[in-house]
């Protein structure tokens, strides 16, 4: 009986959004089409427009409460309220643990804060959830560069550029034929 009262009390006191996050919208077909389109893009500008559409898909949160948290966190980050953004993205990841963009956005905040190890943990999870998330793969490459792991950075850059040959970071990709020059990143 005491256990039932405890559970009832916890459920009544929990915020409504803490129930269960639904699955993120399935944009896999459209995302695959966009990856093919960006690979075939005739110019960097055309590729940028396609990439913007990818970001719209990634930032389509599972439900309204998750979308509000994501949007507020991104606004806070844009306003350099990194503490507030981190709070929001922590909340989003807790609420929607299977939503890749929550981890990617939290990683971005940690990258800005120069906490590259924390960023890597989140980027790994984002990529695990969304293996072709070009933003997360590129972000992981940048975190590896910041930590001095050029080999891992180059591996991630090759994957990212394979998905989007127009990435601005493509210039950081070392020619594999130039042995020893990878350390110059």
- Compute the gyration radius: what is it? 19 Å
- The dominant shape is globular
Per DSSP, the total helix count is 9
Distance between the termini: 64 Å
Order of helices and strands: HHHHHHHHH
How many DSSP-defined strands?
0
Strand content: under 5%
Helicity, as a percent range: 55-70%
Residue stretches low in confidence (pLDDT < 50, at least 5 long) are: 1-18, 177-185
**Mean of the pLDDT scores?**
88
Q: How would you describe the overall organization of this protein?
A:
By secondary structure, this protein is mostly helical. Helices cover 66% and strands 0% of the residues. The chain has helices at 2-13, 28-39, 44-58, 64-78, 82-95, 100-112, 116-129, 134-146, 150-163. It starts with a helix and ends in a 22-residue tail after the last helix.
Give a quick summary of the entry.
This protein is an all-alpha fold. It is built from nine helices and no strands.
Keywords:
mainly alpha, disordered C terminus, about 180 residues, disordered N terminus, 9 helices
Helices and strands in order, then pairings?
Elements: H1 2-13, H2 28-39, H3 44-58, H4 64-78, H5 82-95, H6 100-112, H7 116-129, H8 134-146, H9 150-163
Helix pairs in contact: 2-3, 4-5, 5-6, 6-7, 6-8, 7-8, 8-9
């Amino acid at each position: 009986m005491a256990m039932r009262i405890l559970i009832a009390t916890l459920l009544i006191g929990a915020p409504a959004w803490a129930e269960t996050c639904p699955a993120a919208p399935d944009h896999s077909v459209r995302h695959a089409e966009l990856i093919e389109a960006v690979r075939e893009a005739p110019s960097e500008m055309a590729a940028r427009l396609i990439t913007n559409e990818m970001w719209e898909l990634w930032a389509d949160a599972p439900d309204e409460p998750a979308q509000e948290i994501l949007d507020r966190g991104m606004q806070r980050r844009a306003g350099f309220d990194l503490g507030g953004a981190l709070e929001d993205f922590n909340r989003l990841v807790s609420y929607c643990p299977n939503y890749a963009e929550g981890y990617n956005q939290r990683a971005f905040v940690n990258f800005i804060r120069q906490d590259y190890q924390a960023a890597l943990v989140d980027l790994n999870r984002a990529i695990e959830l969304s293996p072709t998330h070009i933003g997360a793969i590129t972000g992981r490459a940048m975190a590896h560069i910041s930590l001095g792991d050029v080999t891992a950075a180059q591996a991630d850059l090759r994957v990212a550029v394979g998905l989007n040959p127009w990435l601005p970071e493509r210039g950081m990709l070392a020619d594999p034929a130039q042995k020893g020059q990878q350390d110059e990143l």
